[in-house]
């Protein structure tokens, strides 16, 4: 059984959903440490001037080291700004009418505050459904596993009966920990994803926006476009260290 484990991001990019789509079980690593100004609480949409950040304001003063599962939304009115930004920049997109109402409804659920994790997972599950991704998901905080980094990943894999762990491409630190996986008869593979190019509002094309950009522009065809970026997963010996700039473009908040 293939398993992938990654931290839940806000409105993730295409590669996140490709990772979920290619495994038998996906785990939200929600008890990992929250990182300010990371994909945990922000992502980007396309505008006439390029990519624009949408950031969920969260409480972090006096909360150093808090896990993602405990992060609280600081300004509940963020949802109006984010909904408006999507409306302004995608109002004329072909499938705006199809996806904007449910997006707005999910955002508005948090108009009285709440947990960042719940917001992220609500959005991810909705987006996955629209992309026809049916992989079962579970939160790591519900599994009561111990350890940090690779030790925790191995513990989760063993608990869930995995035989193969598919890692986000950015988690190259695993190359130093392969023996931990081998000792538990776990095969490690790295996601191999090249961002597809598609018709996008406001040329030129800008990759690494939220997958919402793909859906609003291509609707039901989005799943096929998303999957077109998938190549055969890499063996550890085929993985080269990635450049810092490349890591920052993708899900640097991965496990």
Explain this structure:
- With 255 residues, the protein is α/β, with parallel strands linked by helices.
- The protein has one domain (2-248).
- The chain contains 9 helices and 7 strands; from the N terminus they run βαβββαααβαβαβααα.
- The two termini are 19 Å apart.
- Mean pLDDT is 93; it is low at 243-255.
For the structure shown, list the relevant keywords.
255 residues; alpha/beta; five-stranded parallel sheet; two-stranded antiparallel ribbon; 9 helices; 7 strands; globular; disordered C terminus
Tell me, what's the shape?
globular
Helical content class: 25-40%
SSE arrangement, N to C: EHEEEHHHEHEHEHHH
Instruction: List the strand order in the largest sheet.
Output: 5-2-1-6-7
For the report, how would you describe the main beta sheet?
Answer: 5 strands, parallel
- How many H/I helices? 9
Class derived from helix and strand content: alpha/beta
Radius of gyration: 18 Å
Let me know the average pLDDT. 93
Number of strands: 7
Task: Please state roughly what percent of the residues sit in beta strands, choosing from under 5%, 5-15%, 15-25%, 25-35%, 35-45% or over 45%.
Answer: 5-15%
Beginning-to-end CA distance, first to last residue: 19 Å
Low-confidence stretches: 243-255
The tally of domains stands at 1
